[in-house]
Specification:
By secondary structure, this protein is an all-alpha fold. It is built from 18 helices and no strands. The structure holds phenylalanine (PHE). Phenylalanine (PHE) binds next to helix 1, helix 2, helix 10 and helix 14.
């Protein structure tokens, strides 16, 4: 099996895979979500827990998940069926693939709404320019999310964009787009960091907020959020990197590529934090302002700096593209499954899964305005879906992936895929067998109040 190819095609090179997988990892999670949840959870200590989770849980699971994809060479659901047969394990493991498919669609339903905000801000940047005044910038944002029509419109547009890329398959638009976008995004973030440095005192306040840990600021739920975010930002636990791994040519090192991807993802998140918190403090904003944080801070920077008009446009355009390279990986597992099992064309599979996801997204858009009083377990639809997927489904999915790779698969098959020196293999095996699953388990126990 090790030499078979996916029916959906393969990445044209190792570099193309790294770009695509980095595109999946780097997205709204880094630039929109990381800053606002860090702000809500008190800063430094939260960042430290998140970084520890990336290292001890995220990277070993990323290696496990990619390895399973490349060995199975199909959509996550069918990959799990094949791999459990190969290992002589019960076939109910394929439900893990189903959980991932559902998680991916639920994440995309709200991801698309937020990507829609970024898209709307491109137009705000072009036509209005941004005001240099924090109060005005906040008012613009509040007016915007109060409008169901606008949110649904931009959400719809983003879903159409996602599905039109997915229709074309893995190589088509995707590979090319990422090659240019990722480096430019990085350049702009560095520019924003440079701007943040010009805020003087506030710059150091921002850095202190991000990097000096105060553990009294965090509780069990904050730790769960940090762990959930490690999964979310690396794109783990739902089959996205598994399906990308299934298009990975044999012979490419899974361990090395995983380290690059996790490294790039972490750098982008930290840069975003370093760019944003100085602005928060310089303008007397609340770090815990929630999902609107970047939309209430970055425009101020663009409003103030020379050339800000152009940079503002460029930044939000790139943010939309960063979101797009993630959104396609969220929906690819179900599309691949529909093609494999139902014999649909990619176009039909994309339209069907896209419409279903879009419909859920409409309820998310409304949860910011018309339906903001409607709650599930005390959370708005947006908050509920975010909590359910990032804090519960992804860690549970990741836990099962680690267990499957380390305990169920035959050692010789795993070794054949990973193809690394013995010591490195033993390290991975130890992390995937014990450390990662135990850590996820302990965090859950703690949140449940058992510990
Ligand atoms: N990693 C993406 C981000 O940070 C989101 C994502 C989650 C992508 C899960 C794939 C799977 O924006």
């Amino acid at each position: 099996m090790a030499n078979t190819k996916s029916i959906h095609g393969e990445w044209s090179s190792r570099f193309a895979y790294i770009l695509a997988a980095t595109g999946s990892a780097v997205g709204l999670g880094n630039i929109w979500k990381f800053p606002y949840i860090t702000g809500e959870n008190g800063g430094g200590a939260f960042v430290l827990v998140y970084l520890a989770c990336v290292l001890a849980i995220g990277i070993p699971i990323m290696i496990a998940e990619t390895m399973m994809g490349r060995r199975g060479r199909q959509s996550p659901i069918n990959t799990l069926t094949t791999l459990s047969a190969e290992a002589g394990a019960h076939k109910s493991w394929h439900y893990l693939g189903w959980m991932g498919v559902i998680a991916g669609m639920l994440i995309l339903s709200y991801y698309s709404v937020i990507a829609g905000w970024a898209n709307a801000y491109v137009f705000k940047a072009i036509f209005g320019g941004f005001s240099a005044d924090a109060v005005e910038v906040k008012a613009t944002f509040d007016d915007f999310i109060a409008s169901p029509m606008q949110l649904v419109f931009w959400h719809t547009l983003f879903m159409i964009a996602t599905m039109s890329v997915v229709m074309r398959g893995v190589k088509g638009g995707l590979e090319k787009a990422v090659q240019l976008l990722m480096p430019t995004l990085l350049g702009l973030l560095i520019l924003l960091v440079a701007y943040a440095m010009s805020t003087g005192e506030a710059y150091f306040q921002g850095l202190a907020f991000l990097f000096s840990p105060d553990f009294s600021e965090i509780d069990g739920d904050a730790i769960l959020t940090a762990m959930g975010h490690a999964f979310f930002t690396l794109g783990l636990g739902m089959g996205a990197i598994m399906v990308y791994g299934s298009y990975l040519p044999s012979g490419v090192s899974i361990v090395k590529t995983s380290l690059y991807i996790a490294g790039a993802d972490t750098i982008v998140a930290l840069l975003a934090g370093i760019a944003i918190f100085p602005l928060v403090f310089a303008n007397g904003l609340e770090p815990g302002s929630g999902p609107g944080l970047i939309f209430q801070t970055l425009p101020i920077a663009f409003g103030n700096m020379t050339g800000g008009w152009l940079f503002g446009i460029l930044f939000f355009v790139l943010l939309v593209f960063a979101a797009l390279t993630s959104s396609i990986s969220l929906i690819e597992p179900v599309v691949a499954w529909l093609v494999e099992n139902k014999g649909y064309s990619r176009v039909k599979a994309s339209v069907m899964s896209g419409v279903a996801t879009w419909a859920v997204g409409v309820t998310v858009a409304l949860s910011f305005n018309e339906w903001s009083d409607f709650t599930i377990f005390g959370k708005t639809i947006f908050n509920f879906l975010d909590y359910l997927t990032a804090n519960l489904m992804l860690p549970i999915g990741g836990f099962c992936i680690a267990v499957f790779a380390a305990w169920i698969m035959h050692d010789k098959h795993v070794r054949a895929e990973l193809d690394i020196p013995e010591q490195q293999y033993m390290l991975w095996k130890y992390l995937a067998s014990y450390v990662a699953p135990a850590a996820v388990f302990l965090v859950f126990l703690q949140v449940l109040g058992v510990l």
